[in-house]
Amino acid sequence: MKEILKELEDRRAQARLGGGQKRIDAQHARGKLTARERIEVLLDEGSFEEMDMFVTHRCTDFGMEKMSYPGDGVVTGSGTINGRLVYVFSQDFTVFGGSLSETHAQKICKVMDMAMRVGAPVIGLNDSGGARIQEGVASLAGYADVFQRNVLASGVVPQISVIMGPCAGGAVYSPAMTDMIFMVKDSSYMFVTGPDVVKTVTNEVVTQEELGGAITHSTKSAVADKAFENDVEALMQTRRMFDFLPLNNREAAPVRPSFDGADRVELSLDSVVPSNPNKPYDMHEVIEKIVDEGDFFELQPLHARNMIIGLARMEGQTVGIVANQPMVLAGCLDIDSSKKAARFVRFCDCFNIPILTLVDVPGFLPGTAQEHGGIIKHGAKLLFAFGEATVPKITVITRKAYGGAYDVMSSKHLRGDMNYAWPTAEIAVMGAKGAVEIIYRAERDDADKIAERTKAYESHFANPFVAASKGFIDEVIMPHSTRKRICRSLQVLKTKSLENPWKKHDNIPL
Ligand code: HXC
């Protein structure tokens, strides 16, 4: 019996070595952790339950029958993060470069199926040279099996991808369909075709980092939601973000104890909006002063910075925050910011996360670049996302809410549950100057007259009271009591029940 037990221990020890000590050392020399070390950092200590440790590939071409590693290049199983269940797969670059074989894919599919069955999130730690070249089409089939599960799991359980090494070719499309992508700076990259193919086809010379590194994807392409300095930071931040999320689409997000009183008054908010309407202020400051302990997990902080999105808590309950940022492009809506916020609103709605919208928007960004780039369709994404969302929606207009952008930003008309305005709010169809130049076109050469008309228009419309008199704003509130108001509303809205008409699915303008 002892010998049998020892054999199991020996086999386990061999599997834990992956592609061998030399390759583990090479992984460390690149500043990367191994697949197993990453799981240890990600999960609660001792919580990992491994599955399929002894699975090997079935390929017999190219001498592969003589080269087989237990586990086949991916470590899979379940564990907990702060006591809550999660399924994990972690690709092992020391085994055939973490490349995906038929059996490697089957292991990933197995944990995804389990996760969907029991209602727990899936976190994928990606570090792979792509399709296992020796296996050819069997590997492509494996990818497609994973893709199909990504689609089925979307909106059912949260799916998070952490890119910690290469992720190239069609392999990028699995993370692309998950809810969130985090990347590690300098050691991870994602592209559909690498620098060599780019050079051959387009003659462009570009490095891996420029083409698809963490900075590129978290600033330009928005493929990644966040970039981190190293493996440990990426994994610790993944733990932090996981804590905001429910386990699946039927559960509420966990409530974490908060030491921040729900009725905390924040007097400094009374002076945050400058008296000059053209002067910016930092909406981050408003967010941090409203949410529990100023703890805000921002997503895509370096892309479309005129829109802020992220997760925070109010009285311990997770909320998704969508906010215009007056510091960048005056907070206007454009293609990138609309797409950024629209996907986030839909994410929150999938996973029962109430949405808090902070509005200071002068309108849509004008120009041929925007029109030709399809701002009509992309702006509609955000309008659609807010309009279809059935989670509790609370809106606070801090300053400007002009034109179509007023409607879009979770207005009362899009089933906003509680729509507040600060006394500094200006809610109007367009800016006073533009409005006067149209209504009083005949007087446009008389500067004094136009100035007088502009002033009159401003004093009539540049306030929240016209909208409030029509019930489009539920209450004009003191900025210092914003947190209190939101906390109360969220309490009331806990029992909100709203359903959209039955449909197979909607047809959001993609
Ligand atoms: C099999 C692979 C492999 C792969 C790497 N290896 N990629 N084995 N299939 N796709 C093996 C190497 O042979 C090597 O084995 C070990 O992994 C480490 O690779 P190195 O090249 O030494 O590492 P590095 O210099 O860091 O380069 C990493 C790399 C490079 C950039 C990922 O290996 C690479 O370019 N690989 C091929 C990438 C690729 O073309 N993949 C297929 C794309 S098509 P030893 O034994 O020496 O340790 C695709 C289609 C998917 O993915 C479609 C889905 C729809």
Defining traits:
single chain, 2-enoyl-CoA Hydratase, Chain A, domain 1, eight-stranded mixed β-sheet, elongated, 510 residues, 3 domains, alpha/beta, 17 strands, 19 helices, seven-stranded mixed β-sheet, binds hexanoyl-coenzyme A
Fold and architecture overview:
With 510 residues, this protein is α/β, with parallel strands linked by helices. The protein folds into three domains: 2-242, Alpha-Beta Complex (2-enoyl-CoA Hydratase, Chain A, domain 1), CATH 3.90.226; 267-425 and 464-495, 2-enoyl-CoA Hydratase, Chain A, domain 1 (Alpha-Beta Complex), CATH 3.90.226.10; 430-462, no CATH class. The protein is built from 19 helices and 17 strands. It has helices at 2-16, 21-29, 35-42, 102-118, 137-153, 173-176, 195-202, 208-212, 214-219, 231-242, 283-290, 335-350, 368-373, 375-388, 403-408, 432-439, 447-461, 465-469, 482-492; strands at residues 49-51, 74-81, 84-91, 122-126, 159-163, 166-168, 180-184, 189-191, 226-228, 297-299, 307-314, 317-324, 355-361, 393-402, 418-421, 426-428, 475-476. The strands form three sheets. Strands 10, 11, 12, 13, 14, 15, 16 and 17 form an eight-stranded mixed β-sheet that branches. Strands 1-2-3-4-5-7-9 form a seven-stranded mixed β-sheet, sandwiched between helices. Strands 6-8 form a two-stranded parallel sheet. β12 (317-324), α12 and β13 form a beta-alpha-beta unit. The longest helix has 17 residues, at 102-118. It is elongated. The model has no long low-confidence stretch (mean pLDDT 95). Bound molecules: hexanoyl-coenzyme A. Residues 23, 96-97, 99, 129-133, 140, 143, 166, 169-171 line the site of hexanoyl-coenzyme A. It comes from Iodidimonas gelatinilytica. GO terms for molecular function: acetyl-CoA carboxylase activity; propionyl-CoA carboxylase activity. This is Propionyl-CoA carboxylase beta chain. Belongs to the AccD/PCCB family. Residues 264-500 form the CoA carboxyltransferase C-terminal domain.
